[in-house]
User: Which sequence fits this backbone?
């Protein structure tokens, strides 16, 4: 966990005090909404259907228990007792009052939490792998570089008014859990043939109206050149990104219109003039950052402790263990995923009570640390395997031990028309119905890994383009309809899904998904051929036939 | 529209000369880029200080060779949300070493003063009187900066390194 | 439910009202016939022509301090003159989310 020092805290406090003054000037009329809107967006404050929505940053998805308790406090004191974890590792509160925001921000600032740049045409939360620092096989902790980038991009005077939003993601694992290929800049930390640490830099990935998979602009940028190289990309984008049409303003459009070669050339020309500037990263700077990350004092523990052997007799525990517990790089430890997708529940939500309880469990069993994943679940990253049985009982009691991680009912969904003013259709009730249809764990395990993503509009905050099954809400004659895609994926083999046919009405969506799943079970080559692989092998046609035969 | 320089409201000694108006023989003038480039050589040699208003959708490369003879370069924020002039400002100051007055024009509001100073602006045609008057207090809002720009402010990263060295030196 | 936030041409096809969110707390409000705002849909001023709608919207937008994001939205007028939301989006804004909140109110 990175420890904020006095400098980091001072900056956050200065930001809070500036925003307090801006809110005051807005409410007195000194600032018009036109002048204020971008300022509030830069502090994570949206206007939604019923109320303001407040998006708080959780840098690279890492929280301390103290911080999680403070989020619970904000939910209670300023909102309606719950929060929603997002596909960018942030948390959202849906009922906040503008007049109370400065106080909420001040309360958060006390524990080093802020909402800087979680919205607006600037650089957003740098997301990473929620298993960063504990996943086996990682070459080093990508969060150190995420923190370096976070600081570099925070209140950057040149890049606070870009043509549009700008998102970074970093991974250091072979298996990409950070979806770097659908980000404006994706960074893959690795070592080159000479053993040096650096990044494959991808650019121009993104979802929304025009989804693009990111393209490699440079296969290896040395660690010490990372910031100067990123600055070159941002400068080219700031100057040449389109500002005439918000639907064509992301960097993915610029890359597409120029072509990756020409774009890479522009960046290279800019970079060659600044690579040895003040942005060159000294090894000592990285070491200093690294020293601020504290890691647990792990014990030497057995892989198969007695507690675990005893608990193996409990089928419920075993079902959960097999589903939600993942290998840790330190022997005797495990990474535990907490499912925020209970049957019938809105995906990704947690109540203030749950947050407090999880914070307590993190203190007891995870060295006080919690992670937020972009699939809208939480994780406890440092659990001793001997503690798994007692932890499971506690998690089950608070409702975050549904053994459905990565399965069909582990749905990623945006808030949709129930909350969001951009939406065309609701997404949460669709997700809820699907969790009910697929509530049976045996069935879900029979189906295997299957990612369903739901977006209530083309802005694609639910990442439907890269869902194994993607559901997109559209409007037809005042009614809610849904387009279904299959075959998308967000990992290192990232791909945009394919539409299977005409949009279907709200009441039929769950039936259609059931038909798709049935088709898969009938068509798969072997029980362990995953849905996504069956689609790859057979294409969309057999699924289309099955679904539209009677529609 | 008040002009802020050296932290306070001052009189603007430069006169904006419209494209179709005659350029005075001497005196300080601000003219459009198009007009300047029509006769750059001639204008750079005129008596009296000359300044250029450079549009935000044009490469500053085209102006670089004249920088030594220009007293002012005025950059434009058509809306405060259009941030192209920040890049232009940094390039002029940091890459091309422009030493004259770098002026922010357009929709210049107090909430961007700190960003503008950090990018190299040192003069501001401020939209609102109240913002102009609040300039000195507004720029004191922030004392910590994460990124290096040409403004000479030490970054947080380097302050930490300094503190570390002085700590270990003290041992 | 297409976002009405980018309404450029004002053209209504039935009885409509102007709605917005209150600046200080974000609460949903409706423009009344008395040049004010109410959080109660039954107080909404009803317009029936595009000209009336334009006029009501213009006056609403002028209150930049009190309200943000004003736009024109359809209503349904019931038998006894009761005003009901005219589409799902307005229904959700007036009644609340269509799902159970994680914490009972």
Assistant:
């Amino acid at each position: 966990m990175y420890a904020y020092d006095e400098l980091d805290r001072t900056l956050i406090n200065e930001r809070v005090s500036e925003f307090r003054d801006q809110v005051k000037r807005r409410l007195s009329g000194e600032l018009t909404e036109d002048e204020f809107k971008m300022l509030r967006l830069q502090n994570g404050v949206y206007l939604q259907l019923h109320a303001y929505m407040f998006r708080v940053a959780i840098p690279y998805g890492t929280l301390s228990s103290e911080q999680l308790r403070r989020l619970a406090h904000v939910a209670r004191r300023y909102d309606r007792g719950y929060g929603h974890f997002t596909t960018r590792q942030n948390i959202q509160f849906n009922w906040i009052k503008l007049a109370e925001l400065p106080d909420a921000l001040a309360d958060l600032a006390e524990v080093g939490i802020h909402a800087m740049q979680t919205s607006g045409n600037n650089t957003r939360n740098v997301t990473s792998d929620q298993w960063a620092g504990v996943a086996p096989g990682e070459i080093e902790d990508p969060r150190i570089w995420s923190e370096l980038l976070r600081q570099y991009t925070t209140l950057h005077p040149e890049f606070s008014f870009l043509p549009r939003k700008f998102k970074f993601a970093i991974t250091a694992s072979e298996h990409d859990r950070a979806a770097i290929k659908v980000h404006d800049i994706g960074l893959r930390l690795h070592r080159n043939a000479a053993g040096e640490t650096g990044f494959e830099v991808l650019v121009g990935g993104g979802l929304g109206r025009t989804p693009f998979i990111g393209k490699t602009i440079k296969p290896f940028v040395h660690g010490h050149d990372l910031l100067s190289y990123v600055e070159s990309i941002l400068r080219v984008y700031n100057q040449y990104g389109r500002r005439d049409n918000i639907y064509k303003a992301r960097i993915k459009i610029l890359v597409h219109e120029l072509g990756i070669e020409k774009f890479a050339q522009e960046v290279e020309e800019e970079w060659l003039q600044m690579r040895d500037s003040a942005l060159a990263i000294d090894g000592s700077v990285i070491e200093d950052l690294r020293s601020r990350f504290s890691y647990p004092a792990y014990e030497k523990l057995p892989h198969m402790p007695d507690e675990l052997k005893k608990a193996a007799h409990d089928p419920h525990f075993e079902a959960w263990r097999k589903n939600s517990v993942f290998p840790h790089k330190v022997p005797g430890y495990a990474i535990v995923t907490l499912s925020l997708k209970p049957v019938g529940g809105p995906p990704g939500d947690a109540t203030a009570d749950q947050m407090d309880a999880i914070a307590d469990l993190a203190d007891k069993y995870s060295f006080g640390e919690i992670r937020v994943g972009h699939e809208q679940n939480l994780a406890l990253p440092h659990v001793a395997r001997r503690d798994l049985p007692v932890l499971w009982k506690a998690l089950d009691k608070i409702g975050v031990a549904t053994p459905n991680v990565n399965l069909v009912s582990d749905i990623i969904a945006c808030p949709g028309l129930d909350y969001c003013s951009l939406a065309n259709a609701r997404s949460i009730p669709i997700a809820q119905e699907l969790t009910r249809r697929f509530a049976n764990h045996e069935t879900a395990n029979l189906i295997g890994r299957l990612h369903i993503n739901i977006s209530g509009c083309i802005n694609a905050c639910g990442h439907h383009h890269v869902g194994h099954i993607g559901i997109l809400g559209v409007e037809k004659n005042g009614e809610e309809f849904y387009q279904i895609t299959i075959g998308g994926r967000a990992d290192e083999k990232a791909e945009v899904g394919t539409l299977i046919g005409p949009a279907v009405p709200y009441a039929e969506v769950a039936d259609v998904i059931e038909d798709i799943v049935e088709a898969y079970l009938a068509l798969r080559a072997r029980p362990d051929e995953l849905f996504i692989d069956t689609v790859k092998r057979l294409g969309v046609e057999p699924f289309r036939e099955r679904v539209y035969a009677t529609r | 529209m008040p002009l802020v320089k050296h932290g306070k409201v001052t009189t603007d000694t430069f006169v904006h000369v419209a494209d179709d108006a005659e350029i005075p023989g001497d005196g300080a003038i601000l003219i459009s880029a198009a007009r300047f480039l029509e006769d750059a050589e001639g204008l750079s040699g005129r008596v009296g200080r000359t300044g250029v208003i450079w549009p935000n959708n044009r490469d500053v490369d085209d102006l670089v060779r004249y920088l030594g003879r220009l007293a002012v370069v005025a950059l434009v924020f058509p809306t405060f949300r259009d941030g192209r002039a920040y890049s232009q400002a940094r390039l002029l100051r940091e890459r091309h070493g422009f030493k004259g007055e770098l002026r922010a024009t357009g929709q210049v509001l107090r909430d961007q003063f700190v960003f503008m100073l950090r990018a190299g602006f040192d003069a501001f045609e401020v939209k609102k009187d109240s913002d102009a008057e609040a300039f000195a207090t507004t720029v004191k809002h922030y004392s910590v900066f994460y990124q290096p720009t040409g403004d000479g402010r030490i970054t947080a990263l380097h302050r930490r390194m300094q503190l570390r060295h002085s700590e270990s030196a003290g041992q | 439910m297409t976002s009405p936030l980018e309404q450029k041409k004002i053209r209504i096809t039935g009885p409509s009202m102007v709605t917005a969110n209150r600046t200080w707390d974000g609460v949903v409000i409706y423009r009344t016939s008395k040049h004010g705002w109410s959080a109660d849909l039954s107080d909404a001023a009803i317009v029936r022509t595009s000209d009336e709608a334009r006029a009501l919207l213009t006056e609403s937008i002028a209150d930049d301090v009190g309200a943000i994001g004003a736009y024109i939205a359809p209503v349904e007028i019931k038998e006894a003159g009761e005003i009901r939301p005219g589409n799902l989006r307005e229904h959700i804004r007036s009644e609340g989310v269509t799902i159970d909140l994680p914490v009972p109110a």
